[in-house]
Design brief:
heterodimer; A: 414 residues; mainly alpha; MetI-like fold; 2 domains; 20 helices; B: 403 residues; alpha+beta; four-stranded antiparallel beta sheet; globular
């Protein structure tokens, strides 16, 4: 009895060793049944073998010369070649665009404060600046190129300061600055100001081309998609029919077919002296294609709203446009953020299809190089693994940011 | 002062017309309708002008002309003397077959990975996550090029791998034994009878399943269904063989032929087709896995727990309880993935496979582009509509029936 009473006062024994720590975790998550135990062992063996062979291949057998050989062409394509930009060094122009982009990220950091914007802006600025120390020969790029790359680190802080200490530090300011920066970049790249050597858009290439198409597409396809979604839900028969036909036709045909046909058929549909360029056409086709999908996503979001929202707004005295733009759309868009970002990611991936109209995006630069230089044919695998990683960084980054934004907005918890 | 005698619209004192909702709505409709009509007319006018001025061919009469260009690979026999129409249909057949096989393989792989993603085994679920996050975030084009150059890096035909002397793997593709029909009517007769045997087997399976659920008697529906199908198939084989004096189908083996060791016989899937298939299946399966996962998580946890309480094994619970309910959530997005796979098969041209877009692109060099554009659009829209129709019919069968 006494011994028992004593033991009541003594602290409770810890759980057995086999239920806590690494062993407990493994029992819980890896070996909780005989079937799972076998699966774990098989999967572990498969992972170890795959890792072993791929690391050995990547380190010893793989020949990464094709990647270093192409170097800056991945980024700007043939923009800075002698034929594109004769007599001048044009490498600084895309770099100014990059600086402006990093500057905008800094502004976003200043506006959004402690959120995902800060790590994104800092990581991007540091990663880009670190490119200045890449030892490979950067074609016609010299120390000035490397200095401009280093300038990205101050740029992010300049953006931060502008957002913190001037009246531009709000969402409207960022949108204004973004539009200005994008237009300035386009003007610089094209050399459409006196004194600059004009560079034909067919020479814009590499990742630069993918990013320009993606940014233009993302910025335009969201508003067009919203309008199409509203049109499809409207009660006006003519407007509704037009929107349904547009959406279904663009969703029913592959983008590559549309892009190719835009090259062959669209020039016929305009007067002969109508000035056109393939970049512009590609941007329009990609944007329209993407906005058809965007419209369906947003329609899904609008359908997920309880009709009580619109009725309550009407009872409060708001009228049609106010209900749509102040009550329904903000909630609808918040509900379908993953789908919208998924569409942005799809759009970014789809920019690789412009090869069909003869533009040299980052994928086509590599493929054309392999085709033109058969001695590199054996290292095609390395090239496409490299390209896969480059795209993956962008697309996974986008989906990661979207998940964090969703968390901050409290989707699904309110 | 009286208003009598004056028409009513002159004395209208309601909301001003420029702020009247109904007037505004009608104005919007008329303006947008007229705009679109004007734009489309303008385009056609310009196309007509271009046709006249630049002497561009138009119309569909080219369809009866011989195409006179070889097609890289086609599932139906094709020779360059065939017409444009036949060549277009051959390419369309390629697209449809790639799409159907791709859809089946991707559904199987996607379901498997989606279930693995939800496994309570940490390693398995993380492996599935890694697969999904990698394959859906890399452009399909990059993946296709990767697989294509992997196949091209295989040894050439004469030094290629030959497995058991039947299966040949080399840099021009994969060759396998394939059934060949010595006489077409015999093969057609047997295939019709075989289809009948499958139908018979399935209906027997359904009858026995119903008996089992109604009476509780163990009836082995799968076993008896399979026996019935196979038995009728074998019997009809011998009947057809006796009636026509030869076997309806024989196995044709690929065999090295001629000076370069080229393979004749069997079925050869060219490098482009292999790469296209692997790329499409992996890419689409990654998206499908997420759909399957979302569908399974949408089924209430109580359902799984109830199944467990009834003593069903995890696999049986998945098969009989979770999956049938998850299907309702899974099917609509799955159909749109089927459509995506079909549309994505148009990337085949990049790796030299002759799908309908690729052949249409080549055809525009010798035939009117606008007509071909219309044909390609109609082809893809028809495929899309067919998939949607089948999907919606199936969806209607599995949806919750209100009582």
């Amino acid at each position: 009895m006494v011994a028992n009473a004593h033991s009541l006062d003594s602290p409770a024994l810890p759980p057995p060793r086999s239920e806590t720590g690494a062993i407990g975790w493994a029992r819980e998550n890896l070996f909780n049944s005989r079937f799972n135990g076998v699966l774990t062992v098989l999967a572990a063996i498969a992972i170890i073998l795959t890792l072993w062979f791929s690391i050995r291949w990547a380190a010893s057998e793989a020949d990464w010369k094709v990647v270093t050989r192409l170097g800056s062409q991945f980024v700007i394509g043939q923009y800075n070649t002698e034929s594109a930009c004769p007599g001048q060094n044009c490498a600084w122009r895309p770099q100014v665009g990059l600086l402006l982009g990093i500057f905008l990220l800094g502004m976003a950091w200043g506006v959004a404060g402690k959120s995902i914007a800060k790590p994104v802006a800092l990581t991007a600025a540091i990663a880009v600046s670190a490119m200045a120390f890449v030892p490979y020969s950067l074609d016609r790029m010299g120390w000035d190129t490397r200095l401009l790359l280093l300038a990205n680190l101050p740029a992010v802080f300049a953006g931060l300061a502008l957002a913190r200490y001037t009246p531009l530090g709000n969402v409207r300011g960022i949108i204004l600055a973004g539009v200005a920066a994008f237009s300035l970049t386009l003007v610089l790249l094209g050399g459409w100001v006196p004194g600059l050597q004009p560079v034909p858009v067919l020479r814009w290439g590499g990742l630069l081309l993918n990013v320009i198409l993606a940014v233009a597409g993302i910025a335009l396809s969201l508003p067009i998609g919203i309008l199409l979604a509203l049109g499809r839900r409207s009660h006006l028969p003519v407007v509704k029919t037009l929107c349904v036909v547009f959406i279904e036709v663009f969703r029913g045909v592959p983008l590559i077919t549309l892009l190719f046909m835009s090259q062959v058929v669209v020039p016929l549909a305009f007067p002969q002296d109508f000035s056109q360029n393939s970049l512009f056409r590609a941007a329009i086709v990609i944007t329209l294609f993407s906005s058809a999908y965007m419209a369906e996503n947003i329609r899904g979001g609008l359908q997920s709203l309880h009709p009580g929202q619109a009725e309550a707004a009407r009872a409060l005295g708001l009228h049609g446009w106010q209900i749509t733009f102040l009550i329904s759309l903000p909630q609808a868009i918040r509900n379908v953020i993953p789908a919208i970002v998924g569409q942005f990611i799809a759009l970014f991936k789809d920019t690789s299809l412009v090869y069909i109209i003869g533009m040299l995006d980052v994928v086509e630069i590599g493929r054309a190089f392999i085709q033109g230089n058969p001695e590199y044919l054996a290292s095609a695998k390395e090239l496409f693994i490299f390209l896969a990683i480059v795209f993956w960084i962008f697309t996974y980054g986008m989906s990661y940011v979207s998940r964090r934004v969703e968390q901050n907005l409290g989707v699904g918890t309110r | 002062m009286t208003t009598e005698g004056i028409p009513q619209f002159l004395t209208y004192q309601g909301i001003p017309l420029w702020r009247h909702v109904r007037v505004l709505q009608w104005a919007l409709q008329i303006v947008s309708g007229v705009l679109v009509v004007v734009l489309v007319t303008w385009f056609f006018f310009n196309i007509g002008n271009a046709i006249n001025e630049r002497d561009i061919p138009y119309g569909f009469s080219f369809l009866q002309r011989a195409y006179q260009t070889p097609i890289g690979h086609s599932f139906i026999p094709y020779s360059p003397s065939n017409t444009f129409l036949y060549a277009f249909l051959a390419a369309l057949t390629n697209t449809i077959i790639v799409s159907i096989i791709g859809v089946i393989l991707a559904t199987i792989l996607g379901t498997f990975i989606g279930v693995a993603r939800l496994s309570d085994n940490w390693i398995v679920s993380k492996l599935a996550t890694a697969f999904i996050e990698f394959f859906r975030n890399v452009p399909l084009l990059v993946q296709l090029f990767f697989w294509f150059y992997v196949v091209l890096a295989l040894p050439p035909i004469r030094e290629g791998y030959a497995i058991a002397g039947r299966l040949f793997i080399n840099n021009s593709g994969v060759s396998t034994p394939w059934p060949a029909a010595p006489s077409a009517p015999a093969a057609a007769a047997w295939i019709a009878l075989a289809a009948f045997s499958v139908i018979a087997g399935v209906s027997l399976y359904k009858r026995l399943t119903r008996r089992e659920t109604m009476t509780g008697k163990t009836s082995y529906p799968v076993l008896y269904g399979a026996i019935a199908a196979v038995a009728i198939g074998i019997v009809s084989w011998f009947v057809v063989a006796a009636a026509f004096g030869q076997a309806p189908l024989v196995i044709s083996n690929p065999e090295p032929h001629g000076a370069f060791g080229r393979l004749a016989g069997g079925f050869t899937a060219p490098a482009g087709l292999i790469a296209l298939m692997i790329g499409l299946v992996m890419y689409t399966a990654a998206f499908m896995a997420e759909i399957v996962r979302a569908g399974i998580t949408a089924v209430g946890k109580g359902q799984t727990e109830a199944a467990k309480a009834l003593g069903l094994s995890p696999l049986k619970a998945l098969r009989h309880v979770t999956f049938p309910q998850a299907l309702r959530v899974i099917i609509p997005p799955m159909i749109s993935q089927y459509l995506n796979l079909t549309k994505n098969s148009s990337l085949a041209g990049a790796i030299g496979y002759s799908d309908v877009t690729n052949i249409a692109k080549t055809m525009t060099q010798t035939a009117p582009a606008v007509s071909i554009f219309v044909m390609v659009m109609i082809a893809y829209l028809a495929i899309s509509l067919t998939y949607s129709l089948i999907g919606n019919l199936y969806n209607r069968r599995v949806r919750i029936r209100g009582r």
